[in-house]
Protein 1
Amino acid sequence: MVQEFEDVIFALKENEVSDIFRTVFGFHIAKVYGRKPEGFSDFAEVQESIVTALHRQKQERAVENFLDRLKARR
């Protein structure tokens, strides 16, 4: 996270909306919906999102490999 973004986000309270601010990526408006305490999540809580992310990565690699094979045929 860029420092400008971090400075704004961590200064906001829950349900508070920031003014417009600028980073190297452009202009932003941020809202903090809630905060979670710092720490680690149990594996059971994150297992499904890990499986989904790994499945998506595998699909993306398969599509890239397929496209590379099609390009090689030319």
Protein 2
Amino acid sequence: MHEPETAPHIGVLAIQGDYERHAAALEESGATASLVRNTADLLRPDGQSLDGLILPGGESTTMLKFLDRGGLFEALRTFAQQKPVFGTCAGAILLAREVRHPAQPSLGILDIAVERNAYGAQRDSAILTLETNLPEWQELGPLEAVFIRAPRIAETGPAVEILAERDGFPVLIRQGNTLAATFHPELSADRRIHTLFISLIQLALNS
């Protein structure tokens, strides 16, 4: 294991979605960000593995077609089994153990069942404020959450910690070093979630 850097080096899967916004949010939150488009991009310039990875939003079926090329799907599965990963919207779908409506392949990293497009079409997108279950966030007020064709987390396993909910369903969860949100934190000015992900990476590096 390499010695941790002051700024962890985090990749952002750059196939679909607003990956540039995620990269900017990571940089604003104190990390070094780089874009991942192939298996080689999962390594830092020094040849060591990236410290963490974000799987952004997009259209999950389209993302799967690209991931099947060049062995990237299996490379992401291996990476996510060993390193902290954060999935947002379609990224959360990719991390799930089960995908419904319709069923599709996934990485099976998070013990959750996800229903695609559960909140309707693009016109049903919404910006909401959510209370969270993290005590250290309480004094900072509610969390802004941008939902765009959001999936719904229908089931969670016993190891999954629910950090925020919408209408009684989890929308922000954590399982070990893996984080997932059914909304788009990169579209908000609030950097709490990206900062939380960086802290999970720093804990992993120091363990």
